[in-house]
């Protein structure tokens, strides 16, 4: 931006140029902030409309960069402060947990963690389920055995196919004959 013309710039030191330029911009520039709603009105009065627009746009760009810098600085400072607080809190928490653990250890009060408790409960449920299944299987087996025994108790032992194997003079012949005789004696007595 060329705010001063060549003749105005001639034979002046840098400090003088900055002062003259700053005073001119300050007198030609007005910023209004009528409502507190983030809208600003920037007006620059100059004989050259393009120069006035360039000065206004440059002023706005400078303000935006300045605001971003403030926000960035504030964010960095806040982040740094929060990080420090978090680190302090974490250090204190670890120290408290360590002290609690030592106290529990010294007083035989060590607690089981929630995960360990869940694991123990799960293991207990698995063991219980296995035992229930085994007991159920054993019950079915015993019921089957009892049913077979009840059926066998209704049969005449001497009529068993095993006893009829072989000839009439086999090892089971005398008891079978004796049993037949006693049955024949017993049947009339029942009636």
> Shape from CA axes?
rod-shaped
Q: What percent of the residues sit in helical stretches (DSSP H or I)?
A: over 70%
Structural class: mainly alpha
Question: What is the number of helical segments per DSSP (H or I, 4+ residues)?
Answer: 5
Mean pLDDT: 79
State the low-pLDDT regions, or none: none
Topology:
Elements: H1 6-9, H2 14-28, E1 29-32, E2 41-44, H3 49-106, H4 114-154, H5 173-190
Antiparallel strand pairs: 1-2
How is this structure best described in words?
By secondary structure, the chain is mostly helical. The protein has five helices and two strands; from the N terminus they run H-H-E-E-H-H-H. Helices cover 71% and strands 4% of the residues. Strand 1 and strand 2 (41-44) form a beta hairpin. The chain is rod-shaped and about 160 Å long. The termini are far apart.
